Amino acid sequence: MRAAVLHTFGDDLAFEEVSLEAPDPDEVVVRTVASGVCHTDRTMQKGANPLPLPLILGHEVSGVVEAVGRNVTYVRPGDHVATCASSFCGTCRWCQRGALQHCENKGRSRPAGRPPRLSLDGTPVEPFVGLGGFAEQLLVHERTLVKLPQEMPLDKAALLGCAGITGLGAVRHAAQVQAGDTVAVIGCGGVGLNAVMGARLVGASRIIAIDRIPAKLDFARRLGATDTIDASRVDAVETVRELTGGGVDHAIEVVGIGPTIEQAFAMLDTMGTATVVGVAHPDLQVQIPAAQLLLEKRIQGTKMGSTRFRLDIPFYCDLYLSGRLDLDALLSRTIDLVDVNLALKDLDAPTGARTVVTF
Ligand SMILES: [Zn+2]
Ligand SMILES: [Zn+2]
C-alpha cells in the first residue's frame, strides 16, 4: 500500500509502497478514508522527539475496517472507525482509574519476537503512535479504534481523534467548565478552536479567544467566541481583566510556552483554574506568584483532554449529526496524499483551521 514515509528528520515525506503483515489476533486492518494534518506531525517531522525511522506520520484517522484478527470482537469488516492515540489496555492501574490517557500498555507496537506490522523492502517502518495515518491502510491494535455511526461523514470524523477530543475534553473533563463560567482560550489552532466550541457547548457565559493571528480569531468567533483578543497588539491579561471585570473562571492554554502558561494563571479570577493543554518542552520552567494561591487559584495539566475516546467520539458524532458541533467550519480543506508535504509546511504559518488528507 502507498504511504508517505519520513526517512530523515527535517526532510519531506517520500511516497513508497509499504507492506502490511496479516493481522495478529488482536489487530485490525483499516482502509484509510481521511487523515488530519496536525501540528504534532510537523514537530515530529522536524525531529522534536526523535522516533525510530523510517516513520509514517498521521494520527487522527478515520476509515473502514477491512479485516480483523481472530480475537477481535469490537469491530467487523465494513464498520466505520476513527483512531485515537489514547489507546488503552483496560487492566493497568491507570485504565482501572478511568484515566486511559495514561495507560501503560497502549499496544502501539507488537510484542517482542513478532514481525513488525509494517515494512519497506524488509526494513521495519514505524507507524507514529501505533497509527501511521498518512497511508492507504493501517494495521492497528483494536483498542486504538472507536466505532462511528455509519452516517457520520468520515472526513469530519477524522478531526475528532486528536484535536477534537483534546480541545473539547480539556473543557469538559479537565477544566469541568460549568454553565455560566467565563472562559479564555489561549491559542486558536485546531485544539484551541475545539476548546472554544466546547465552552459554547457547556454554556460558558463569556468565551474569550486569544491569538496573534487575526484569521484564527475570525474562526474562533464563527465557532462561538464572544470576544477575541489579538495578543500581538494588546496585553492579553489586561484585556481579559477589563472585559470580565477581574478575570476568568477558566483559562485554557493551548500553546505550551512559558509566557502563555504564566498569562493563563495571571488572567484568572479568584478561585479560577488554568488548564494547560499545550505540550511544553521538557526543560521549560514557569513561575507563578505564590501569594495568589491564597485566592484558591489553581493550575493543572491535561493529556489529550483527559479523554475516554470510546465514549467521547460517538458523543461528538451525535452532536455533529444533530447540528450542535460545527465540524464543517473547522475543516478548512481536503487534499490528496501527494500534497501532504505542502500541508505540513503550511503549519509553520497556519491561517486556516484543519487540513485533512482524503483517500
Ligand atoms: Zn492500561
Ligand atoms: Zn494531533
Domain count: 2
What is the mean pLDDT?
Answer: 95
Question: Which residue ranges are poorly predicted, with pLDDT under 50 across at least 5 consecutive positions?
Answer: none
Strand pairing plus helix content: what structural class? alpha/beta
* CATH fold group of the largest domain: Quinone Oxidoreductase, Chain A, domain 1
What is the assigned CATH homologous superfamily of the largest domain? Medium-chain alcohol dehydrogenases, catalytic domain
CATH level-two architecture of the largest domain: Alpha-Beta Complex
Count of extended strands: 19
What is the name of the CATH class of the largest domain? Answer: Alpha Beta
| Assembly level | single chain
One letter per element, helices H and strands E, the order comes to: EEEEHEEEHEEEEHHEHEHEHEHEEHHEHE
**Strand share of the residues?**
25-35%
CA-based gyration radius: 20 Å
**Which cofactor or ligand species appear?**
zinc ion
Major beta sheet, specifics? 7 strands, mixed
Shape: globular
The number of helical runs is: 11
User: Considering DSSP H and I runs of 4 or more, what fraction of the residues is helical?
Assistant: 25-40%
- End-to-end gap: 12 Å
